[in-house]
What does this fold into?
Amino acid sequence: MYEVGRAGGYVSQQMWRRRATGILYGAAAAVLAVVALGSLVGVVYTGVAPLRALAAVVGVAAAGGSWYAWARSRRTLRQAGQAAIGARSEREVRAVIRRTGSIAVAYGIKLGDRGGDCDAVVFTEGCGAAAVEVKTGHGEVTVDGDTMRVGRRVLPKNPTGQAVHQARRLSRALGRKPVLAIVCVPGMTNRAFATATGVWVCSADDLKTVLDRVPRVFGSTAEAQETMKRLWNKYNS
It folds into this structure.
């Protein structure tokens, strides 16, 4: 199988960036807390009224800044943890794709200058094309219009809409050939199903079954692999 890109690469970058930002916010919170404490000491022990007033103002400002920085640190580090989970989900899907006998796969490919990347573009064993969006969660998956739930949790944005968008972009790149849009939730516990918009939603276990449904669009394995090389060089070089 011909592979390009790195599964979970984009969210891994987000994870490291957010971890670094969270650590910086945490350090700022600690410094401001020390300043606030020092100002409190100044208020208590300074006998000059103007200096005491100044210390009080500085202390209040530092305490407020410390609280804000600490809150931002916690939020950013929590987002980093979520990104790490997302990267693991994409790597889990990669492991499944490798067992499907697919001809070629591109991970994190950007099919244009605007918008996000497609988690996986798969040219299947049957010479078909699919755009796969990977989402994280565990439990029964349901779709109601633009809303997707995993258990009781509502996934952010519009996962099926994202899959449709990436499938359309891939179809244009392939000269309007049909492309199947897929949302794969590795921890999904119910059976695979198709939405009203034609998007297939499946677990990692059912991904091969769904990929087997993809209609043939390439005449040969060589054509599919050469097409993938061309796409990657065009959009991600």
